[in-house]
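Q: Start with the shorter request: fold the first protein.
A: Done. Sequence, then structure:
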Amino acid sequence: MVDPQGFAHVRLTVTDIRRSKAFYQQLFGMPPGSDFSDQIDDPTIHDDPWRTYGGCSFTFHGQTLGLRPVAQAGDRFDPDRVGLDHLTLRVGSVDDLHRAAERLDQAGIVHGAVTDLEPFGLVILSLQDPDDINLVLAAPRPPDA
């Protein structure tokens, strides 16, 4: 029926756009490409898809991760509800995962261990965003591992 070529974009619902934007900007090491978060206090922004509801987005390698600030303050992510379980971002190598772990440590961001998932051909590193959304960084498992 369809021959997917990857994802065009994924948008996460967040509670605090300033906090989430800062987190992802630090994680990715770049500012958002599209950003309407400075208009978040405009009462009409939450109804305006052209201004992405007051959100922002980060684009890398032809794919976009957007942040939509419409969740109620105090709401927390629940992977056991319908919708998103986790978001996995691909990185180039296992060395990239170890470098990411070091940079996360330096930034004071809690994360899991670099873990070899042999049956899946992946090595991963997990962390949580400010709304407790599980993010996974994944690299291909080296053939000689």
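Q: Next, the second protein, separately.
A: Sequence, then structure:
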Amino acid sequence: MQSNQMQAITGKELEYIVDSISNEDLLIKQCAATAAATQNPTIQQACQQYIRSMDHHIDLLVQAIQQHQPLAPTSPQQ
């Protein structure tokens, strides 16, 4: 029997999510710099589309953290 109840994420899983958010943010900055530096409208458009995609990824990762927030311990683990 499979339970639909969500389980708390582990510290390691949280670290992976935070790292992913950080990586997505870095890619957004790099794409924005590339879009600003190029004169090619096709490259600018591709960078802007990629930035929107990465923004969506960040939103999904933040939502994952927020969904698990009620399951987080209320005091530090020892």
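Q: Describe the second briefly.
A: Helices lie at 11-37, 41-68. Residues 16 and 43 are 30 Å apart (CA to CA).
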